[in-house]
Give the backbone structure.
Amino acid sequence: MTDSPGMIDLHSHTFASDGELVPAEQARRAEVQGVEVLGVTDHADASNVEDCVERVESAKQTASIRLLSGVEVTHVPPERIASVVERAREAGADIVVAHGETPVEPVAEGTNRAAIEAGVDVLGHPGRIKPEDAELAAELGVRLEITARGGHSLANGHVARVAKEAGAKLVVDTDAHHPRDFITRDRAVEIARLAGLSEERAVEVVDENPRELLDEKGLL
């Protein structure tokens, strides 16, 4: 095992949406893979956004590692994304992720742009990201996600290339729904390398970029 910092995974799901585990087991499953900080970001729209945040705030009492309360704004029409993001912030969310335009789900065109304009923290698996949207993400400090999740990961190479050209920052997350989805830090670096990043850049994306984000938000 390499001597390396613990992983920060900003994107995961519990049984409260389409995952399998309660937050305490989610935390433990992540912990044994070397995760130190875990974002719990169940799928949210206008019907449940506050409930998602409040549930994780309660779950922090029994978790074995640090949890971040959050949401993944999912399949919300682009023109309504900003209102859901605002409600998540008002509810006290530590982290706000948006479900980006992926090649394996019928996410509405314009979702990537609307989520970036709304100021989400992470644009999850944005496989159809356009160069001009990546440039806006760079300007606004929105992180673009390289994902470990099957299907969504088909476009990791495109996301990495467009982010590099635009100067946008990347993070690697699992988007974990099942116990087997959690990965080690070294596996995260490998996934970033397979997306086309150099070893040095992959280490930066896994080790430094999520910490920088949480530091900017006053969460470290």
User: Anything to note?
Assistant: The chain has a mean pLDDT of 97. Strands lie at 7-9, 35-44, 66-73, 95-99, 122-124, 143-147, 170-173. The longest helix spans residues 199-216. The chain is about 40% helix and 15% strand.
